[in-house]
Amino acid sequence: MQKVIHPNPIIKSVKAIIIEALIIILLIAFRDFLKNMTIGLAVGSAAVLIAYLLVLQIKKKFESVILEEGGLRYKRGLLTQKEYFLPYNKITETRYSQNIVQRIFGSGRLVIDTPGGSDNPIDITEVSKADAQELITLINNKNIRKQ
């Protein structure tokens, strides 16, 4: 049995879109001062927004938590890939937290830790609540069976 969980960068995407909207509003407000540059700046900022959203979508494909029979495998990185393996019996704590904005969008922060606060805890900032709950339940079930 293998289950793969990827982050969902919805919060970062929404923040970027809001910032872009504010930039467009400022450009409209100062169009008399900026004269002919307004359209060029608007198109340029929209291009940056699109590139940023594409990078977020590509980046999410390169971060994952994989539930395997013996433990969790955490992979991340596009150019420099890092991979950690945590046996289920070494996992001491799983935490899922949400701020108010994350609650609205149904995502949150998932932290999986080992004894003594390992240098490499699994920390994913935008995981859906359903994926996090399923992951935590599976980890707890694996740990109960090991005891």
Polypeptide structure, described:
The protein is built from 5 helices and 7 strands; from the N terminus they run E-H-H-H-E-E-E-E-H-E-E-H. It has 147 residues and is α+β, with helices and mostly antiparallel strands. It has 2 domains: 89 residues, Pleckstrin-homology domain (PH domain)/Phosphotyrosine-binding domain (PTB) (PH-domain like), CATH 2.30.29.30; 49 residues. The mean pLDDT is 85.
CATH hierarchy, class of the largest domain: Mainly Beta
Terminal-residue CA separation: 20 Å
Q: Looking at CATH, which topology of the largest domain would you report?
A: PH-domain like
Structural class: alpha+beta
**Which series of helices and strands comes N to C?**
EHHHEEEEHEEH
- Could you say what the CATH architecture of the largest domain is? Roll
CATH superfamily of the largest domain: Pleckstrin-homology domain (PH domain)/Phosphotyrosine-binding domain (PTB)
Strand order of the largest sheet: 1-2-3-4
Describe, in short, the structure shown.
By secondary structure, the protein is α+β, with helices and mostly antiparallel strands.
List the helices and strands and how they pair.
Elements: E1 3-5, H1 10-29, H2 31-34, H3 37-60, E2 63-67, E3 71-76, E4 82-87, E5 93-97, H4 100-105, E6 107-113, E7 122-128, H5 129-146
Antiparallel strand pairs: 1-2, 2-3, 3-4, 5-6, 6-7
Helix pairs in contact: 1-3
